[in-house]
Design a protein that fits this description.
Elements lengths: L1 H8 L4 H10 L4 H21 L16 H20 L3 E3 L4 H15 L4 H5 L1 H8 L8 H16 L1 E3 L4
Antiparallel strand pairs: 1-2
Helix pairs in contact: 3-4, 3-7, 5-8
């Protein structure tokens, strides 16, 4: 239990981050693009979702899992099209789609705690900033997203 707590709560040192960056061939420019992609997606999801989160709410609509999937897919495709206008071509489906969809399902669509839902954007802004205090858990999340987006993204400009 102590190891798990350290994994999710103990900040890594700057030296450990530098080693992690080099050993995983992280390119900061791509990391920034992938952060923008995820944040854009989450903003679309939050801004356009009409479903209910609150019990006893009369203004929200009960959405099925199919409705939620279709909403996510609409947001996903909207962001992909926007990035394509900038010559950044992201595959519509793949492990990147599945991972990010499942993650957003957990932290937004199926999340009952309003405070958690409202903090999703701040979470993604903070987690990608390696100059902030990050944990090994944060680095694993970043690496999973980075690798899956990197293998499913083509750039129409020279890097």
């Amino acid at each position: 239990m102590e190891n798990f707590f350290n994994y999710i709560a103990t900040p890594v040192t700057e030296e450990e981050i530098n080693i992690w960056i080099k050993s995983n061939n992280i390119i900061f420019e791509k990391l920034s693009i992938f952060q923008d992609f995820v944040i854009s997606l989450v903003l679309y999801v939050q801004d356009t979702y009409l479903g209910e989160h609150e019990e006893n709410s009369e203004t929200n609509i009960k959405m099925s899992e199919e409705d939620i999937y279709n909403h996510f897919l609409w947001c996903w495709n909207k962001v992909i099209k926007n990035f394509a206008k900038e010559s950044i071509f992201i595959d519509e489906f793949g492990d990147h789609f599945t991972f990010i969809k499942d993650f957003i399902n957990e932290i937004f669509y199926f999340q009952k705690n309003k405070q958690v839902r409202d903090s999703v954007i701040l979470f993604f802004i903070d987690v990608f900033k390696l100059e902030n205090q990050v944990t090994k858990s944060d680095l694993d999340l970043i690496l999973t997203m980075y690798k899956s987006l990197n293998k499913n993204t083509k750039f129409g400009f020279t890097s």
